[in-house]
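Quick check before the chapter quiz. The format below is the same one you will see on the exam, so make sure you can read both the input and the output lines.
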Amino acid sequence: MSSRAIPLRRRPFDLLIIAFFVINLLFITYIVDIEQLIIANPYHFTYPLWPPAPAIDAIHWWGRTFDPLLMARPVWWKMTIWIDNLAFGPFYAVAIYAWVRGRDWIRLPSLLYSAVMLTNITIILGEEFAGPHASPHFPIVLLANLAWLLVPLAIIARMWRSSTPFTRDVKPPMTPSPVATDSPAPL
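Here is the expected output.
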């Protein structure tokens, strides 16, 4: 028996996860998060070549308005950003390909990603709620980060059910069997 990838059009829920990966790859990881590694002190800096100045201004506005942790940038926080840039960024690129094409080998990396992401976001939200850099607007920060709680849970639910989440076994086509006859073969 062979297996065949289930077409993406028959996996509409997967489109949401793929969209999440694309947004993270193109915007969150290498614009929002990398800014926090490039600019050590958001209160005194020179605009770098990347990310673009309007993005930096928007990130700092968010930090000043809702998210003091983003502006404080303690070492543990920067370590989560390094994880995002060095591990999650490449994962997103590979995962987009694998989820679109229906490659089962992405199952374990998706589960590992989800576990690490849930760990990181839970620690971050704990700090945002009750730590030294707690947000004065925690419900807004929670809503802004909810996707990083819900999507990893959805990935775990999606990947947990089967060791082959994207493929199904396909029976080979039946070949006609020779017809038995009682008459002698023609000469």
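If your answer matched, good. The longest helix spans residues 12-38.
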